[in-house]
């Protein structure tokens, strides 16, 4: 990627936005996904934003890309700071490799449309989506940053949960899924790695909706490539 965005005098602009007009901003707060591994070292990317240097303008707000939190089969997730408010957010974009696929236009449209629909999933147990936009031909989802630890890491470091804790988190994720299903969406990758325990409230929050899709039996098979063995639906 050309890093002209580092130059404060360079021209920056939003190429297009997919946020519906008059759609009120999210009310969920200001925190989102944490990295699954504190020692995670992101790979070098020829086309990604450069942590600590890249500044991007999204919807007339300037963000500094702080670091890469992780990447999976579908997307890359960055921690960023909104410069004016110094609010931390998470920005997710589609992996560059997927742009080479012949069906990328379908992947892109699905990514955008489902992210917009996820904005309507208002629940304390679901990561909130603030905006959906595009910059430098990269589709971007701006989400809250959640300070906390994922459930997989908690179990690996501290052992099994108590029955009381387990039932509490099961109920909370169940409430999250009721909201998701109410929007005619499926998450399809519910696993401990995708559940963050919010530090402030000790509540379970469902994250990583990169595999979410509208419930349509004719399209479900096409997305099996990114499912997690042992956790994905049959």
UniProtKB/TrEMBL annotation:
Organism: Crocosphaera watsonii WH 0003
CDD domains given in the database record: STKc_PknB_like (cd14014)
Domain Protein kinase: 63-234
GO MF, one annotated term: ATP binding
Binding residues annotated for ATP, in chain numbering: 92
Region Disordered: start-end pairs: 1-52
Name of protein: Serine/Threonine protein kinase
PANTHER family: SERINE/THREONINE-PROTEIN KINASE
Keywords associated with the record: ATP-binding, Kinase, Nucleotide-binding, Serine/threonine-protein kinase, Transferase
